[in-house]
């Protein structure tokens, strides 16, 4: 593990339409592996990711590899190497798979072969209109867009939400493979996926960080899981 975290968030506070949605969030993301952001519904997990990216009004300090980025607009943060897989996928439904991926390319030599190996189904459907894909295939397009570039960090929000078990397995496998080359900050409610993927975990409650530990330290403790997340450790939220 690198001595310097890839991401440092200090006293992050976020508002949407004047309403406080992130109260005071502080944590670090190691420069390797997958760090999970856990918490009950509505506690500020998605807003934390959006705040890091500057998609909502924020205060506090955000550093990428030691460099402050909290004063930058979203497009400049992305250019510095932060990829984003949003909760609702946000693909261009009228464009083909190939066109969706091409729009995401920021560098001269995008990692097309890497993405093709992870998502062979997208290669077969490259000329298909993205809006006609299944929900799982659309999620693959969303993840693939973030992996085309040599990002320094990827923020992934609820990638398995609403997907069939077989597709959950495929998406999780792709994220595991991607994490070998880029650190990932992952918001995920499926605790089995978290168990498979995450090294570390940050638990948010009421817009604040309430617990930080190794992911398995939380998930192997049923009482702690129930207290922090409101579910049993073996449950799939």
CATH topology heading: Rossmann fold
Distance from first to last alpha carbon: 30 Å
Low-confidence stretches: none
N-to-C SSE series?
Answer: EEEHEEHEHHHHEHEHEEHH
Any idea what the shape is?
globular
Trace the largest sheet across and list its strands. Answer: 6-7-8-3-9-10
Q: Give the helix level as a range of percent.
A: 25-40%
CATH homology-level superfamily: P-loop containing nucleotide triphosphate hydrolases
What top-tier CATH class fits best?
Alpha Beta
Mean pLDDT: 93
What is the name of the CATH architecture? 3-Layer(aba) Sandwich
Query: What's the gyration radius in Å?
Result: 17 Å
Helical/strand content category: alpha/beta
List the helices and strands and how they pair.
Elements: E1 7-16, E2 19-29, E3 34-38, H1 45-53, E4 57-64, E5 67-68, H2 74-79, E6 82-85, H3 97-104, H4 112-118, H5 120-124, H6 135-147, E7 153-157, H7 165-178, E8 184-187, H8 191-197, E9 200-205, E10 208-214, H9 215-219, H10 222-229
Parallel strand pairs: 3-8, 3-9, 6-7, 7-8
Antiparallel strand pairs: 1-2, 1-4, 4-5, 9-10
Helix pairs in contact: 3-6, 6-7
Any overview of this molecule?
- The protein has 237 residues and is α/β, with parallel strands linked by helices.
- It has one domain (7-229): P-loop containing nucleotide triphosphate hydrolases (Rossmann fold).
- It contains 10 helices and 10 strands.
- It has a 6-stranded mixed β-sheet, sandwiched between helices.
- The chain is globular.
